[in-house]
Design goal:
Layout lengths: L1 H19 L7 H4 L6 H6 L1 E5 L19 H7 L12 H10 L8 H4 L7 H10 L4 E7 L30 H9 L5 E7 L6 H5 L1 H20 L3 E5 L6 H4 L1 H10 L8 E2 L15 E4 L10 E6 L18 H13 L2 E7 L9 H17 L13 E3 L19 H4 L11 E8 L2 E6 L6 E4 L10 E3 L4 E2 L2 E4 L2 E5 L16 E6 L4
Parallel strand pairs: 1-2, 1-8, 2-3, 3-4, 4-5, 6-7, 7-8
Antiparallel strand pairs: 9-10, 10-11, 11-17, 12-16, 13-14, 13-17, 15-16
Helix pairs in contact: 4-5, 7-8, 7-14, 13-14
Protein name: alpha-L-fucosidase
InterPro entries: FUC_metazoa-typ, Fucosidase_C, GH, Glyco_hydro_29, Glyco_hydro_29_N, Glyco_hydro_b
EC number: 3.2.1.51
């Protein structure tokens, strides 16, 4: 018996070791079989950061991405929300800096002299974010860390040698890792004007992209790597299946790294660790997924945007709730300026979100989708679509909730669930009663309003649950409470 028991234990240990050491092959069937680390699906809210030399001019027409400044300027092309001639950024650049002022000179002016990584990290915690993703390198090729491949275009093009003279990525990573927030890096596969990219793409991939990517991973050991700039070539030409196999099998982060879906032309929403959407509305996937968008339209700081171009705190909270009820995460972008200052309006929005999450976060973090993500009002059409735009503006969620167009229904309740509890999130305060269709409570149920922890009366009426609302007293609520109200039902009837 002892021999049999020992043999069984050895077999179990061997099976566990085999699973832990599974070797992933450089093909999508194998790579997609790797589970996305659980923490990512539970996190729900992350902060995106676009920061680089483009943060110095920090300008593009409203409705466009300012971090594309170099491309807009040098190609005299432009796209986004609006009607453009294409030469708007070029004309602005010539008028402001002169025709002979090269984009690469912005690297020298990218001083980051006001950058305080500990203050940034504290703000991210206060916002209630569970992870951060910063641009280690955008499409202009400038790296926020010392890297020899950044200089293979013929001149120094990294933050340690040009501009701030600091390892900005290393400094922020060290600060964030003092907190419970996970650290992630955005990384652009391609670079607009790198000479090898323009003239010898196979060399760009093997001698620039792959070694630079590996250096980034091994130097800072991130929790997430967020690929982008993949759309020009198929994954086979990028050789990303081979690179990801290295990441999963050999790298120092092989057991913890999370990846997205941007690793080659046509790969998005088909392969990768989680799917990504960008300024979209109404997404819903069986895979882990994430919606990314800015507080305004631009990811990089755009000094051309005004206060009215920024989404209100209620809009941002309702965006988050809308995404989470459908099983996704929200990656909300901020754009610091060239000196490393996070604009005050962005700081304020993050703090406002954090205030709401501090009270209502249990209905967000770690939750799963319920049998339906939301309940529509009984009357009206449910097919409202925002005006045709390249980027869906944040106000779409207001039209779907608190400010519907005439004749259209609204999402009046969002649902999430966790640990046997059902959460109802309402964009508006229900006047006298909240009717939840196709839901019943049980004798063991308790229904509370999270913001006040007040127990509420209720009754089942047929297939519906009717919650009796107390008189609304604004003095019992903080400003953040008004963005959305959360009701918790323990032991609901499933």
């Amino acid at each position: 018996m002892k021999v049999k028991l020992l043999f069984s234990l050895l077999m179990i240990l061997a099976a566990g070791t085999t699973y832990a050491q599974k070797k992933y092959q450089p093909n999508w069937e194998s790579l997609d079989s790797r589970p996305t680390p659980q923490w990512f699906e539970e996190a729900k809210f992350g902060i995106f950061i676009h920061w680089g030399p483009y943060s110095v001019p920090a300008w593009s027409p409203k409705g466009t991405y300012s971090e594309w400044y170099q491309y807009w300027m040098q190609t005299k092309g432009l796209f986004g929300n609006g009607n453009f001639k294409g030469d708007e950024v070029y004309n602005y650049h010539v008028k402001t800096y002169g025709e002979d002022f090269d984009y690469y000179r912005f690297g020298e002016q990218f001083t980051a002299d006001l950058f305080d990584p500990d203050q940034w990290a504290a703000l991210f915690e206060e916002a209630g974010a569970k992870y951060v993703v910063i641009t280690s390198k955008h499409h202009d090729g400038y790296t926020l860390w010392p890297n020899k491949e950044a200089n293979d275009r013929g001149f120094a093009w990294n933050s340690v040698e040009i501009g701030s003279k600091r390892d900005l990525l290393g400094d922020l990573t060290a600060a964030v890792k003092k907190t419970d927030v996970k650290m992630g890096f955005y990384y652009s596969l391609y670079e607009w004007f790198h000479p090898w990219w323009q003239n010898d793409r196979p060399r760009f991939v093997t001698d620039h992209f792959h070694p630079q990517f590996k250096d980034l991973i091994e130097s800072y050991q991130p929790d997430i790597v967020w690929g982008d700039g993949e759309w020009e070539m198929p994954a086979e030409d990028w050789k990303t299946p081979e690179l990801l196999a290295w990441l999963f099998n050999e790298s120092s982060v092989k057991d913890k790294i999370v990846i997205n879906d941007r690793w080659g032309k046509g790969i998005r929403k088909k392969h990768g660790g989680y799917f990504t959407t960008e300024y979209e509305a109404g997404a819903n996937f069986s895979n882990p997924w994430e919606e990314c968008r800015g507080m305004g339209f631009s990811f990089g700081y755009n000094q051309n945007e005004d206060a009215e171009d920024y989404n209100s705190p209620q809009t941002l909270i309702l965006m988050l709730v809308n995404v989470v009820s459908s099983g996704g995460n929200l990656l909300l972008d901020i754009g610091p300026d060239g000196r490393g200052k996070i604009p005050p309006i962005m700081q304020e929005r993050l703090r406002q979100m954090g205030q709401w999450l501090k009270i209502n976060g249990e209905a967000i973090y770690g939750t799963k989708t319920w049998k339906k993500p939301f309940q529509w009002t009984a009357e009206g059409s449910r097919d409202f679509k925002p005006e045709k735009q390249h980027y869906t503006g944040g106000d779409f969620i207001l039209k779907l909730t608190v400010d519907p167009e005439p004749g259209y229904a609204a999402k009046e309740i969002f649902f999430t669930q966790k640990a046997g509890n059902l959460y109802l999130i309402t964009p508006k305060w229900p006047s006298e009663e909240l009717v939840v269709r196709d839901v019943n409570a049980t004798r063991a149920s308790k229904i509370t309003l999270l913001s006040t922890n007040q127990a509420l009366s209720w009754e089942n009426k047929g297939n519906d649950l009717v919650i009796k609302m107390p008189a609304f007293d604004p003095n019992t609520f903080s400003d953040a409470d008004h963005y959305a109200f959360v009701f918790k039902i323990t032991a609901p009837k499933q």
